[in-house]
């Protein structure tokens, strides 16, 4: 028994398995169905028990590398036993050779070739043949493969001679990589040795540059496919940036270039320091621990660390809650720091490889390399040089001689539009100990940093390079605290540091006029912003206090008051930055959650901002913040809500907001509609003009009023009590469904339920009551299809469902029930239900805010309960932030009064909390079949429903 075998005897007893296999052959023979069945049963038992032991040992010692090695050894033992059984008892040698397996060897390749295997991973095997003349070896290979397949394993395999291996590896990088990592499991030793010797001399020698280029290109393509960032909050542990595949790539390149078999030799060669090699092994061990736990937990080869397993993985790895950060957030921060370490190691190795290749270029190649790689001086500095479009250092003592050069390197790269030489970034990472308080307080260093941050070129790129090198968090320790920090929710797609850098990138795009179509108002007002520096600093720091026990906006303002003077900002600018950070969520929440037609909403917001300058800055900060949250979070409708809030507040701040002429403006709007309907019969025209109240006339564009008029007249001519009309808005990413229906206390409940059943998310709705007891509702849903024709078909189908619901052809419980199951991810989150009631947010209405975990049909359930409680919903606003929903309802009692009774308020809160907790759902139990009775007349007021 070898030392390797002795190391893993706790996983599988190889001699005992060999005896069991011999006993099966003795009892049933070799090539019999009974023998094969008994062999399969024994192998399944050994595999199951071995994996259970490996999982138990992982729980006790926490070593991912050991776990992967144990499972690899278990698999080796099983394959060896199968091979021995096949060559001895099923296909015994008929010749006079010295051994049963002399003409064949079985090798592990891929990750398995490195002696590591995750619980659910594929098994990659290479069957190497001495020649193709005998079919016996291929029959042995098939026997082994079929048993492995019957055991439930996914097996990648190839059967080749040595000549075929060499020939194919020359033309195929994937095959070359597999053979590079080949490890003999069983079979002929001389055959495997011959393969490795010929591969080294005939393939590897003199082809290192080609191999390195191919593997780095392969890595870059893989990164692009997975989002090209290591800071996605649901990372792919195997294939993602900073994951195990990146570590594998490092080893492939090092093994190929330096001709080594052990990573530890990189320290002897001076490629990695002892500390860096320690980081390498710790990163590898951690990533393997995470991957093995994922496979054990899910029972399959799950490689994406998704929300619904992150909490359990964190618990399995022993993380605990700390003030400001939950256990899962602490675990994920560790994960992203490890991913960052992998990036550091990649840069260090690439720099060393480039340097070695330059030194080893022979003869004429060396002359060409020296000519093409010659460096050029950069104006204004003797410490840095340009090397083929990349900035590099003039000598190894550049940073030690003047630590400000750590910042100056990035400033000069920005000024001159240069990429970074890997050696320069390697030196930065190895010089971080030079970043002390003296450098942090140095006026020149801070001036250079502020210049980088407010650059007219690409500040986000430079900041990201500073962050990846570890410099940004060292230079600004407050930023360092949020490096690699994630927020455990479905709303934020990136870690906090990546989000902040992306926010700066969005601001830069607006500043340079690159986003005018998406952000017309922000792009228009940006040139008039006087405090440009303050805005960039506020954008960069707005979430810098995340992860603290206190409100991050308040804590962030305090951080800003400390950092801004250091950056060189004036006291006035410092207070402006602090104010922007403290209020950076306000505009978004008001725009999405409040009634923008309620004068009190605008008054309260105007009281917060107080000046047009601050209004401009807060708008731009809000747009940048939402845009940088992640793909799909921003849409044109959110932009429209922000623009509406901006314009209304601008009017009030400039003295132009007044209700004095409200009646006159409504009369004027009615006259304009009358002129637009001049072709109508006079009696029909006057009858129609008498249908609408002031809120409709004042808040609906004339173009839409005309469309509605034709829609209503057509429905009346056809005698249709219920009718729908659809239209798309591509810029806003919104689709409009207009509904004409007899008014009904549960109308909003039924419409919301129909949309939920169709999988449509309500973004906003405008619901008005006419004087003849009908409701003219315009429901706005988020767009699903890019093509207008597809989207119109979808909306038409939803419209028909709404008509069926309102007419009683379909019942809400029946259509919602199939859709009511929460997505799997939602179960990973806990959002305690919260209900608040306020009488101060509106002069006329009580505002009920409901917060909790989102689920299909929730809006229908809430509105049904509010109807049960005899509340008249005048306006509703639905906002979804990932898994969390925040709904605001403007309500009165049935006689139009606010809800002031504390007893009644307490009852409302209790009922709504029960619905949010999904404990009680009376709404669904009491849903009406439809409008089978005469509708109850409503107050003659308009209701606006927004989201």
TrEMBL record:
<dbReference type="InterPro" id="IPR003607">
    <property type="entry name" value="HD/PDEase_dom"/>
</dbReference>
<dbReference type="GO" id="GO:0006808">
    <property type="term" value="P:regulation of nitrogen utilization"/>
</dbReference>
<keyword id="KW-0548">Nucleotidyltransferase</keyword>
<feature type="region of interest" description="Disordered">
    <location>
        <begin position="927"/>
        <end position="947"/>
    </location>
</feature>
<dbReference type="InterPro" id="IPR013546">
    <property type="entry name" value="PII_UdlTrfase/GS_AdlTrfase"/>
</dbReference>
<dbReference type="InterPro" id="IPR002912">
    <property type="entry name" value="ACT_dom"/>
</dbReference>
<dbReference type="Pfam" id="PF01966">
    <property type="entry name" value="HD"/>
</dbReference>
<feature type="domain" description="HD">
    <location>
        <begin position="496"/>
        <end position="618"/>
    </location>
</feature>
<protein>
    <recommendedName>
        <fullName>Bifunctional uridylyltransferase/uridylyl-removing enzyme</fullName>
        <ecNumber>2.7.7.59</ecNumber>
        <ecNumber>3.1.4.-</ecNumber>
    </recommendedName>
</protein>
<dbReference type="Pfam" id="PF08335">
    <property type="entry name" value="GlnD_UR_UTase"/>
</dbReference>
<keyword id="KW-0808">Transferase</keyword>
<keyword id="KW-0378">Hydrolase</keyword>
<dbReference type="InterPro" id="IPR010043">
    <property type="entry name" value="UTase/UR"/>
</dbReference>
<dbReference type="Pfam" id="PF01842">
    <property type="entry name" value="ACT"/>
</dbReference>
<dbReference type="InterPro" id="IPR006674">
    <property type="entry name" value="HD_domain"/>
</dbReference>
<feature type="region of interest" description="Uridylyltransferase">
    <location>
        <begin position="1"/>
        <end position="377"/>
    </location>
</feature>
<feature type="domain" description="ACT">
    <location>
        <begin position="736"/>
        <end position="814"/>
    </location>
</feature>
<keyword id="KW-0460">Magnesium</keyword>
<keyword id="KW-0677">Repeat</keyword>
<keyword id="KW-0511">Multifunctional enzyme</keyword>
<dbReference type="GO" id="GO:0008081">
    <property type="term" value="F:phosphoric diester hydrolase activity"/>
</dbReference>
<comment type="similarity">
    <text>Belongs to the GlnD family.</text>
</comment>
<comment type="function">
    <text>Modifies, by uridylylation and deuridylylation, the PII regulatory proteins (GlnB and homologs), in response to the nitrogen status of the cell that GlnD senses through the glutamine level. Under low glutamine levels, catalyzes the conversion of the PII proteins and UTP to PII-UMP and PPi, while under higher glutamine levels, GlnD hydrolyzes PII-UMP to PII and UMP (deuridylylation). Thus, controls uridylylation state and activity of the PII proteins, and plays an important role in the regulation of nitrogen metabolism.</text>
</comment>
<dbReference type="InterPro" id="IPR045865">
    <property type="entry name" value="ACT-like_dom_sf"/>
</dbReference>
<dbReference type="InterPro" id="IPR043519">
    <property type="entry name" value="NT_sf"/>
</dbReference>
<dbReference type="Pfam" id="PF01909">
    <property type="entry name" value="NTP_transf_2"/>
</dbReference>
<dbReference type="InterPro" id="IPR002934">
    <property type="entry name" value="Polymerase_NTP_transf_dom"/>
</dbReference>
<feature type="domain" description="ACT">
    <location>
        <begin position="847"/>
        <end position="926"/>
    </location>
</feature>
<dbReference type="GO" id="GO:0008773">
    <property type="term" value="F:[protein-PII] uridylyltransferase activity"/>
</dbReference>
């Amino acid at each position: 028994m070898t030392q390797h075998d002795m190391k893993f005897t706790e996983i599988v007893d190889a001699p005992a398995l060999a005896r069991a296999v011999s006993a099966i052959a003795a009892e049933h023979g070799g090539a019999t169905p009974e023998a094969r069945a008994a062999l399969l049963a024994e192998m399944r038992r050994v595999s199951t028990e071995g994996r259970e032991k490996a999982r138990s040992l992982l729980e006790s010692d926490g070593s991912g590398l050991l776990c992967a090695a144990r499972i690899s050894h278990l698999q080796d033992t099983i394959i060896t036993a199968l091979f021995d059984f096949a060559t001895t008892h099923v296909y015994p040698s008929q010749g006079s050779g010295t051994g049963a397996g002399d003409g064949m060897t079985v090798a592990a390749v891929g990750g398995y070739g490195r002696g590591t295997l995750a619980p659910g991973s594929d098994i990659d095997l290479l069957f190497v043949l001495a020649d193709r003349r005998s079919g016996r070896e291929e029959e042995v290979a098939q026997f082994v493969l079929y048993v492995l397949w019957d055991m439930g394993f996914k097996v990648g395999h190839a059967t080749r001679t040595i000549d075929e291996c060499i020939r194919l590896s020359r033309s195929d990088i994937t095959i070359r990589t597999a053979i590079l990592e080949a490890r003999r499991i069983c079979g002929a030793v001389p055959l495997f040795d011959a393969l490795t010797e010929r591969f080294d001399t005939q393939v590897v020698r003199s082809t290192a540059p080609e191999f390195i280029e191919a593997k780095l290109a392969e890595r870059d393509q893989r990164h692009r496919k997975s989002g090209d960032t290591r800071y996605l909050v649901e990372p792919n542990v195997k294939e993602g940036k900073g994951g195990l595949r990146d570590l594998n790539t490092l080893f492939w390149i090092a093994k190929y270039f330096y001709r080594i078999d052990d990573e530890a030799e990189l320290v002897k060669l001076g490629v990695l320091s002892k500390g860096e090699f320690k980081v390498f092994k710790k990163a590898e061990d951690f990533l393997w621990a995470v991957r093995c736990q994922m496979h054990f937990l899910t029972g399959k080869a799950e490689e994406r660390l998704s929300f619904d397993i992150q909490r359990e993985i964190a618990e399995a790895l022993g993380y605990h809650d700390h003030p400001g950060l939950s256990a899962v957030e602490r675990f994920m921060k560790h994960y992203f720091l490890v991913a960052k370490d992998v990036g550091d190691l990649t840069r260090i190795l690439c720099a060393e490889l480039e340097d070695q290749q330059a030194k080893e270029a022979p003869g004429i190649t060396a002359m060409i390399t020296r000519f093409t790689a010659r460096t050029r001086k950069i104006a204004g500095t003797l410490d840095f040089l340009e090397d083929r479009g990349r900035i590099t250092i003039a000598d190894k003592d550049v940073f030690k001689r003047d630590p400000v050069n750590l910042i100056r390197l990035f400033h000069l790269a920005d000024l001159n539009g240069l990429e970074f030489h890997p050696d320069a970034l390697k030196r930065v990472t190895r010089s971080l100990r030079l970043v002390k308080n003296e450098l942090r307080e140095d006026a020149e260093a801070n001036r250079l940093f502020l210049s980088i941050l407010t650059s007219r070129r690409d500040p986000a790129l430079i900041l990201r390079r500073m962050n990846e090198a570890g410099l940004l968090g060292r230079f600004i320790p407050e930023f360092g605290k949020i490096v690699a920090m994630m927020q455990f929710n479905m709303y934020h797609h990136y870690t906090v540091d990546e989000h902040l850098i992306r926010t700066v990138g969005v601001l830069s795009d607006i500043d340079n006029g690159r986003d005018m179509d998406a952000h017309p108002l922000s792009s228009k007002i940006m040139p008039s912003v006087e405090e440009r520096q303050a805005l960039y600093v506020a954008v960069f720091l707005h979430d810098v206090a995340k992860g603290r026990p206190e409100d991050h906006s308040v804590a962030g303002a305090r951080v800003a008051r400390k950092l801004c003077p250091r950056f060189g900002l004036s006291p006035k600018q410092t207070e402006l930055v602090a104010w922007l950070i403290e209020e950076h969520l306000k505009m978004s929440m008001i725009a999405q959650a409040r009634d923008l037609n309620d004068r009190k909403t605008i008054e309260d917001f105007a009281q917060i901002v107080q000046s047009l300058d601050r209004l401009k800055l807060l708008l731009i900060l809000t747009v940048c913040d939402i845009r940088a949250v992640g793909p799909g979070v921003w849409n044109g409708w959110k932009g429209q809500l922000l623009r509406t809030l901006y314009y209304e507040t601008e009017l009030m701040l400039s003295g132009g907001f007044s209700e004095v002429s409200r009646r006159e403006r409504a009369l004027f709007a009615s006259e304009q509609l009358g002129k637009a309907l001049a072709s109508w019969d006079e009696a029909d025209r006057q009858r129609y003009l008498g249908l609408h109240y002031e809120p409709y006339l004042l808040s609906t564009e004339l173009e839409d009023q005309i469309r509605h008029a034709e829609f209503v007249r057509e429905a009346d001519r056809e005698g249709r009590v219920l009718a729908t009309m659809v239209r798309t808005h591509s810029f806003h990413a919104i689709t409009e469904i207009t509904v004409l229906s007899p008014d009904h206390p549960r109308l909003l409940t039924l419409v919301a339920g129909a949309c939920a059943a169709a999988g449509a998310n309500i973004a906003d709705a405008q619901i008005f009551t006419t004087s003849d007891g009908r409701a003219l509702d315009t429901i706005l849903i988020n767009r699903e299809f890019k093509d207008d024709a597809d989207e119109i078909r979808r909306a038409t189908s939803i419209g028909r469902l709404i008509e069926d619901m309102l007419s009683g052809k379909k019942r809400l419980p029946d259509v919602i029930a199939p859709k009511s199951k929460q997505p799997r991810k939602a179960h990973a989150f806990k959002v305690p239900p919260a209900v608040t009631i306020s009488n101060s947010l509106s002069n006329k209405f009580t505002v009920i805010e409901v917060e909790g975990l989102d689920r299909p049909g929730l809006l229908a359930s809430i509105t049904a309960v509010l109807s049960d409680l005899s509340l008249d919903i005048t306006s509703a606003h639905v906002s979804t932030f990932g898994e969390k929903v925040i709904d605001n309802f403007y309500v009165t009692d049935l006689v139009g009064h606010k809800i002031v009774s504390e007893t009644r308020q307490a009852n409302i809160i209790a009922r709504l909390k029960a619905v949010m907790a999904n404990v009680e759902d009376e709404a669904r139990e009491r849903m009406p079949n439809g409008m089978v009775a005469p509708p109850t007349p409503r107050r003659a007021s308009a209701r606006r429903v927004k989201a």
